[in-house]
Amino acid sequence: MAPAQILVADDDAAIRTVISQALMRAGFEVRVTANIATLWRWISAGEGDLVITDVLMPDGNAFDVLPKIKNSRPDLPVVVMSAQNTFMTAIKASEKGAYDYIPKPFDLTELVAIARRALAEPKPQPNAAPGEDPGDNMPLVGRSPAMQDIYRALARMMQTDLTVTITGESGTGKELVARALHDYGRRRKGPFVAINMAAIPRDLIESELFGHEKGAFTGAQSRSSGRFEQAEGGTLFLDEIGDMPMEAQTRLLRVLQQGEYTVVGGRTPIATDVRIVSATNKDLRQLISRGLFREDLFYRLNVVPLRLPPLRERIEDLPDLARHFFTEVQKEGLPRKTLSQGALDVMRRYTWPGNVRELENLIRRLSALYPQDEISGELIEHELSNEYARALDSETDGSRPVDLSASVERYLSDYFSSFGDQLPPPGLHGRILREVEYPLIAAALAATRGNQVKAADLLGVNRNTLRKKIRDLDISVVRSLR
């Protein structure tokens, strides 16, 4: 049987060489070209079982030819590469029908693995959903490996109605991601409705979610629509879902199971058609162990888990984020500023407990309060001189940061204190090990970009052991666009 033929297009001769060598070592036949016109001629002639192409080529853009490829040969999988590692690149790759999107630089082992998967499952890809071209305005900023994983995961979910739970520290942009899922997804023409569970009195949450009839309770002077009704045909974003009281959780679970709800004081069930996206900065598994969150609701909401990295885990995005916020405040009439290299160095050493929101607030202060066109490192140090700046000092004086043991000790002290005179539920040892294992394995997978062989070697565990841990801990491993 003849080996599969892979067509590779890239204007960089060195990249073409390393890709073709890696693919030939894997047993594939490879043809390479430096322009789109030749690639299209080969495809039109029926050549190739798989295409791997850069987006920006000397004679055109691969995104412009992708629809022609899908119309001419819908069974031909196309993998696109790009150094323009933005959110919109991943979204366009998905909408144009690409099998996968690979940001440059990439791991050759991962590329070969993607090629094998694509050839093993050559299926026609769906065309882009009808609607307007979202354009090049990026709702998310950053090109770090951590954000590339987020972009690829979002691209895979755009044309689905799967329920998503977004986790991450305060200020990481959870609502921004939820809005991106809506604005670039199949429900973009419907409403996006957000509700913050932590900001609503407990006795009014059910009324806020499901609405109420006139006279349903004291003060209900007229009928009021709930957020489910307002979000009909669109997306309902449940922020701070960990703060939802148990009785409201029960009703929400019933809606997710049955696809209908009843307004407070009403009797007739109402069918609902909304996509649910939830978010929290809390550990829902810990809330489950403490009896504060329903486990069955957790699994209904957590169909697709998405963890947003804190800013300290994507610190290489800091210059891009700063430029973005300076541009935004300039649109509001404030003067444009730039950051000196010294300022950037100081900001990179800071731990950013408030994450991207804290950075945005800092940029606004700098633009509004200081006359200098270029912000110096001394000025940044002054602005960050608060209780969190101790983390910056520990970096500059060479002292060691707080170790893991001390952090765990503080965590356990707070955990036991939260129960007052009572003891936590039995099984604490297993729960703590699980909570440590989950972020450890997730971090190893993120660092190796989902490569389980490398992650197992990094962790010093057997690959089968790692696979079992991933399955038992329900860790999401992002690989390819389908």
TrEMBL record:
TM region(s), chain numbering: none
Gene Ontology CC annotation, any one: cytoplasm
Sequence positions bearing 4-aspartylphosphate: D54
Ranges of residues in domain Response regulatory: 5-119
Major location (coarse): cytoplasm
Domain Sigma-54 factor interaction per the UniProt entry, residue ranges: 140-368
Record GO biological process: regulation of DNA-templated transcription; regulation of nitrogen utilization
SMART domains in the cross-refs: AAA, REC
Subcellular location: Cytoplasm
Keyword set, alphabetical order: Activator, ATP-binding, Cytoplasm, DNA-binding, Nitrogen fixation, Nucleotide-binding, Phosphoprotein, Repressor, Transcription, Transcription regulation, Two-component regulatory system
InterPro entries (alphabetical): AAA+_ATPase, AAA_lid_NorR, CheY-like_superfamily, Homeodomain-like_sf, HTH_Fis, P-loop_NTPase, Sig_transdc_resp-reg_receiver, Sigma_54_int
Pfam families referenced in this protein's UniProt entry, alphabetically: AAA_lid_14 (PF25601), HTH_8 (PF02954), Response_reg (PF00072), Sigma54_activat (PF00158)
Gene3D superfamilies, per database record: 1.10.8.60, 3.40.50.2300, Homeodomain-like (1.10.10.60), P-loop containing nucleotide triphosphate hydrolases (3.40.50.300)
GO molecular function: ATP binding; phosphorelay response regulator activity; sequence-specific DNA binding
Role, per record: Member of the two-component regulatory system NtrB/NtrC, which controls expression of the nitrogen-regulated (ntr) genes in response to nitrogen limitation. Phosphorylated NtrC binds directly to DNA and stimulates the formation of open promoter-sigma54-RNA polymerase complexes.
UniProt name for this protein: DNA-binding transcriptional regulator NtrC
Organism of origin: Aureimonas glaciei
